[in-house]
Amino acid sequence: MSLPAGQHPRPSFAARLDLVLKALSMSRARLAADLGIDKSLAGRWVSGAVQPSAYNLERLTIYVAGKCPGFTMLDWERDLPQLAERLGVDMTVALPATPVAAPRNASLPPLPYGLVELARRETRRRGAAYEGRWKVTRLSSSGAMRYMVEHALISQDGDTLNFRHFGGGWEVRGWLLVLSVQLYGVICDASDDSMGFYVLNGVTEARANCIDGIFSTVCADRHLTPNAQAVVFERIGDLADDDDAWATALIAKAAGVDADDVPAHVRAAVAPDIGPKAAAAGGEAMLRVPIDRSLCHGEVGGTR
Question: pLDDT at residue 109 above 60?
Answer without folding.
Answer: no
